[in-house]
Write a structure and sequence with these properties.
Blueprint lengths: L13 H20 L3 E2 L5 E3 H7 L5 H6 L2 E2 L2 E3 L4 H10 L9 E10 L11 E10 L4 H18 L3 E7 L3 H18 L6 H8 L12 H10 L9 H17 L4 E2 L13 E7 L7 E7 L3 H4 L7 E7 H10 L11 E5 L5 H13 L4 E3 L6 H11 L3 E5 L1 H5 L2 E6 L5 E5 L3 H9 L3 E2 L5 E2 L4
Parallel strand pairs: 1-5, 7-8, 12-13, 12-14
Antiparallel strand pairs: 2-4, 3-4, 5-6, 6-11, 7-9, 9-10, 10-11, 14-15, 15-16, 17-18
Helix pairs in contact: 1-5, 1-11, 5-9, 12-15
Length: about 425
C-alpha cells in the first residue's frame, strides 16, 4: 500500500526547505535586533481559547478549526502567546514584553495556492506598549524582513477605531445591506451581517461581497473619532519618516475579532488571489479578555509558506547543501584513515561526506561532480599504510599526497578563497 501526504499539507524537501530556512532566519535575526525573545507554545490549546479570542463568528472558528476532545490545533499564533503571557504572569518580568515565535498552524480549509491546511507562521508580539510608535515599528519590522528577503510587496494600513466606533459602523453596514438586499452576498457574509462583527464582510475575498462592499458601503472613516484618527496620523507620520512605502486602505479590516485600532496587511507578488504574505495590528483588549490585567498589545505574523511561494515566483530557488569534500576509501583497509580524514575536515568547520558505495574511482568522481563538491580525498591501501591521502581539486583535476595529520590545514588553506552563503555552502567567489 502506498501512502500519500494529507491534502493541504506539503513535504519540505530540497530547495524549498532551504528557502524556508532562509525566511525563518531572516525573521529571527530581525526580531532579535529589535529586542525580542523567542518563545514556544503548545501546538494545540483549549478550543475555548480561540473562540474567546479569535471570535465565535469568524470563519476560523466556525469552519476551519481542527477540534478533538475539547482541544483544537492552533489556527493562529497570537491567542496562544497571549494565553502564555497571562498564565505565566510575564508582566512581572517588566513591560513591554517582546515575544516572537515560529511554528506550524492548522486550518481545515479548501486547499489552493498559498492556502494550506498546515502552514508555518513567524509572529512577533509586543505586550505593554500603547504608543503609536510601537504600531509603526511593528510595520517597519515586517516591511524590513520582506525587503531583506527581496520579496516584492505592498504595505496597506488602516485603523478600525475603538469598539464603540466599530459598533456604529457595523450598524450602518447592516442597514446598507438590508436596503440593498442580501442576494449579492455569499452565504458566509449573510451570516456575518447578522452576527457580532458585520464589517468582516469587507475582508471577504468573494467579489460580490468584499469587492462590492468596498465601493458601495459608507466609508469606515466616517465613523472614526478624532482620537483614533490622531493616533492613525501619528503612525502615518512615523512610517513616512522611516521611508516605508505604504498605501492607506480605508476598507482594510482583519478577519479576527481581537483587532482594534491600527491594522495592516502586506501583499506580495506571485500568490494569486491569496496574496497576503503578512498582517497584523493592535489588540489592546485581548489580554484582559483572557483573564490578565488590562494590557495594550500589538503584533504581526508572516506566512512563511507564502513568502517561499513569492520568492519562487520571482525565480529565486533554494540551493541544496553540498559537501566541501567527499572522502573515497578504495578498499576495506582504507576505511579507518578515511574516517579520520573526514574528521580532520570537520574539525576545521568543513562539511565532509564519505562515499561508502565501493564504486569505481571514475564513477566516484562523476558522483562528486554531480554533488558539486570542490574537493575529493582519496584513500587507497598504499596511502592508508602511510597514513596519508590524495587531496584532489575537482575543478582542475590536480592532486597531491598529504599526510593525514596535515589534511585539515591543507584543506583550510585551499578553501580560503571561497565564501559561504547562509546554508554553509562554498561558492567560488574570490574575496
Amino acid at each position: 500500500m502506498k501512502f500519500q501526504r494529507p491534502t493541504g499539507t506539503r513535504d519540505w524537501i530540497g530547495g524549498d526547505l532551504i528557502l524556508r530556512g532562509r525566511v525563518e532566519k531572516v525573521f529571527l535575526d530581525a526580531v532579535r535586533r529589535h529586542g525580542f525573545e523567542t518563545v514556544v507554545v503548545p501546538t494545540f490549546e483549549d478550543a475555548g481559547l480561540f473562540r474567546r479570542s479569535v471570535g465565535e463568528g469568524t470563519d476560523v472558528v466556525e469552519k476551519e478549526m481542527f477540534e478533538f476532545g475539547g482541544f483544537a490545533l492552533r489556527p493562529e499564533g497570537t491567542a496562544g502567546v497571549a494565553r502564555a503571557f497571562v498564565e505565566n504572569a510575564l508582566w512581572e518580568r517588566g513591560l513591554p514584553a517582546r515575544l516572537a515565535f515560529v511554528g506550524p498552524m492548522f486550518r481545515n480549509e479548501t486547499s489552493q495556492l498559498g492556502r494550506f491546511r498546515e502552514f508555518v507562521q513567524a509572529s512577533a508580539e509586543v505586550f505593554g506598549a500603547s504608543s503609536p510608535g510601537q504600531d509603526a515599528e511593528m510595520i517597519m519590522i515586517a516591511d524590513g524582513i520582506l525587503r531583506d528577503l527581496h520579496v516584492r510587496h505592498v504595505v496597506k494600513i488602516n485603523t478600525v477605531g475603538a469598539p464603540e466606533e466599530r459598533r456604529d459602523f457595523s450598524r450602518a453596514l447592516v442597514a446598507h445591506f438590508e436596503d440593498a438586499g442580501l442576494a449579492s452576498l455569499c452565504p458566509t457574509c449573510r451570516r456575518r451581517i447578522a452576527g457580532a462583527n458585520p464589517f468582516r464582510v469587507l475582508d471577504c475575498k468573494t467579489e460580490g461581497c468584499g469587492g462590492t462592499a468596498r465601493t458601495t458601503v459608507p466609508p469606515l472613516g466616517l465613523f472614526i473619532g478624532w482620537r483614533s484618527m490622531d493616533r492613525h496620523a501619528e503612525v502615518v507620520k512615523l512610517l513616512v519618516a522611516a521611508g516605508v512605502p505604504f498605501v492607506e486602505d480605508t476598507t482594510l479590516v482583519r478577519g479576527l475579532d481581537y483587532y482594534d485600532g491600527t491594522v495592516f496587511e502586506i501583499s506580495a507578488a506571485g500568490l494569486g488571489a491569496q496574496d497576503a504574505v503578512a498582517g497584523g495590528g493592535r489588540y489592546d483588549r485581548l489580554v484582559e479578555s483572557l483573564g490578565g490585567p488590562p494590557t495594550p498589545a500589538v503584533g504581526f505574523a508572516i506566512g512563511v509558506d507564502r513568502a517561499v511561494l513569492s520568492l519562487k515566483s520571482m525565480g529565486i530557488e533554494g540551493v541544496r547543501p553540498r559537501p566541501d569534500v567527499v572522502v573515497v576509501p578504495l578498499c576495506p583497509e582504507a576505511a579507518k584513515v578515511a574516517v579520520q580524514a573526514a574528521e580532520e575536515i570537520r574539525a576545521r568547520w568543513g562539511v565532509a561526506a564519505i562515499d561508502w558505495s565501493g564504486r569505481r574511482l571514475k564513477n566516484a568522481f562523476a558522483e562528486i561532480d554531480r554533488l558539486g563538491a570542490p574537493w575529493a580525498v582519496i584513500v587507497g591501501a598504499d596511502e592508508a599504510s602511510r597514513e596519508a591521502v590524495q587531496f584532489r581539486s575537482m575543478s582542475d583535476k590536480s592532486q597531491l599526497e598529504v599526510p593525514l595529520m596535515d589534511l585539515g590545514d591543507v584543506w583550510h588553506t585551499a578553501s580560503r578563497p571561497f565564501e559561504r552563503d547562509m546554508t554553509g555552502n562554498p561558492f567560488p567567489v574570490k574575496k
